[in-house]
Design a protein that fits this description.
- Helix content is 42%, strand content 13%.
- With 449 residues, the chain is of the alpha/beta class.
- It has 3 domains: 79 residues, Arc Repressor Mutant, subunit A (Orthogonal Bundle), CATH 1.10.10; 103 residues, Alpha-Beta Complex (Aspartate Aminotransferase, domain 1), CATH 3.90.1150; 233 residues, Aspartate Aminotransferase, domain 2, CATH 3.40.640.
- A 7-stranded mixed β-sheet has the order 5-11-10-9-8-6-7, sandwiched between helices. A 3-stranded antiparallel β-sheet has the order 1-3-2. The protein has a two-stranded parallel sheet with strand order 4-13.
- Bound molecules: pyridoxal-5'-phosphate.
- Pyridoxal-5'-phosphate binds next to helix 7.
């Protein structure tokens, strides 16, 4: 059975050792069926002579392939192609696996980060990080509440953009929304947590990871009576832009909810993730601005600057923050000092405000385009960086499949739903180019009509 191996070409000048080249060639011939299961290989001495290499080269290759299970040695009778790993003698050669196709995920959470990063912004970004380098390394652990200057700068921004009457002592730095939720829940009394259904899957996962029961709350019709909230330690909501259905929590519901939560002793947890991106009306003030004693607010830079920074904040009543501090003071569980310092530089430099303004322009244009193309299937105005199309399950699956065939991974509403059984598709328009969005819109529309 020397023939298939006599044709093996070994490159003497190659950086790949001769034994490894021979092993690769034999693997290939086993894989394509040229060397079928059970075939006997020539002796190392004979093949070495045929190929003009040292016998140790062949021995090395055989030993490697035996170790990998391609070959087996039979005592006293030679080396054979192993039976179980390869095709039968006259079975067709196994088809080469399809290379995985890379899909562009049009995620609801992927923001647009200015790809050109024009002059002023790029310079501000570099300046912020240069300052971090010049100031470090930090001495000891950072303030576990977050750097004081950064808390002050964030409080100023929250007063200006979210209508919150807060100072530096009213907020704590986190590594993002779910981290803030974790700190908050560890400081609240035991008990289940209501979470919107459909709702943010990461919040559900976080609540469960902390050993708390998740109670499904209708996303567009949360309980507004004390009896409806009874027993809930907290209720997690996305009032500015219900994730993932989209609507803003109406003013009357806000007032009723706060009254009910006060009476029931439930903490309302406001996930304020993308509130600055509204195009039909001005951003709606935070729910927490109505009653900071009842509402804790979770903020993030993931939509305004970049999710990779992993920074956010928790605004909560003083007694709750006191309990958060007790634990964090012991665990040193706070965001990294360099990231905090850089964000401080970016805030002071006006970078964050400029980034929000430019992203808002891009989103507003894209939101209008989405409304233009898919308006018939949209329940309302598009905000933030995604649009949600509620659809019957089968139709949602068909749209999802059509998008996939065209190279797009469109999130299914069902992935954010629990007992509600909500179905539809979500089209994120932040993390793509205009051209990709046009392509995706055409595919989705074609699948709908
Ligand atoms: C509802 C919701 N909240 C918060 C976030 C941001 O989370 P983080 O601050 O952990 O990046 C996202 C991002 O996708 C989100 O969809």
């Amino acid at each position: 059975m020397t023939d298939p191996l006599l044709a093996v070409h070994l490159e003497r000048g190659s950086r790949t050792p001769l034994g490894a080249q021979l092993a690769a060639a034999v693997r290939g011939r086993i894989g394509d069926g040229t060397l079928p299961a059970g075939a006997r290989l020539p002796s190392s001495r004979a093949l070495a002579a045929d190929l003009g290499v040292a016998r140790s080269v062949v021995e090395q290759a055989w030993a490697q392939l035996v170790a990998e299970g391609w070959l087996e040695g039979r005592r006293g009778s030679g080396t054979y192609v192993a039976g179980s790993r390869v095709a039968a003698p006259d079975a067709p050669a196994p088809a080469a696996p399809e290379p995985p196709r890379s899909l562009l995920r049009l995620s609801s959470g992927h923001p647009w980060v200015d790809p050109s990063h024009d002059g002023a912004q790029a310079a501000a970004w570099r300046r912020a990080w240069r300052d971090v380098g010049a100031a470090g390394p930090p001495d000891g652990y950072p303030d576990h509440r977050g750097l004081a200057d950064l808390r002050a700068a964030l409080a100023e921004r929250l007063r200006r953009t979210r209508g919150l009457d807060v100072g530096p002592d009213d907020l704590r730095l986190t590594t993002g929304t779910t981290d803030g939720l974790r700190h908050l829940l560890t400081a609240l009394p035991a008990g289940p947590v209501g979470v919107e259904d459909p709702g943010y899957a990461a919040a559900v996962a976080q609540v469960r990871a902390l050993g708390r029961e998740v109670v499904d709350v209708p996303a567009l019709d949360p309980p507004t009576t004390a009896s409806g909230l009874a027993g809930l330690a907290a209720l997690y909501l996305t009032p500015a832009h219900q994730h993932p259905l989209g609507p803003v929590l109406p003013a009357a519901t806000r007032a009723a909810l706060i009254g009910a939560a006060r009476e029931a002793g439930t903490v309302l947890v406001e996930d304020d993730y993308d509130s600055e991106f509204r195009y039909d009306v001005a951003p709606v003030p935070a729910l927490a601005s109505l009653d900071p004693g009842t509402v804790a607010l979770l903020g993030t830079v993931s939509k305004t600057v970049a999710p990779g920074l992993r920074l956010g904040w928790l605004v909560a009543p003083p007694d709750v923050l006191g309990r958060v501090d007790e634990l964090r003071g012991t665990t040193h569980d706070s965001p990294s000092w360099p990231a905090q310092r850089a964000l401080l530089g970016l805030l002071r430099d006006g970078y964050v405000d400029r980034a929000v303004r430019s992203a808002r322009r891009v989103y507003a244009r894209r939101a209008a385009r989405v409304e233009q193309v898919l308006g018939d299937w949209l329940p309302g105005a598009v905000a933030g960086m995604y649009a949600t199309l509620p659809l019957p399950g089968e139709q949602a699956d068909a749209v999802h499949r059509a998008a996939r065939d065209a190279g797009f991974d469109l999130p299914l509403l069902a992935d954010s739903a629990r007992s509600s059984g909500a179905t539809g598709v979500v089209l994120g328009f932040g993390g793509c180019t205009d051209a990709q969005l046009e392509q995706a819109l055409a595919v989705v529309r074609a699948a709908l009509v």
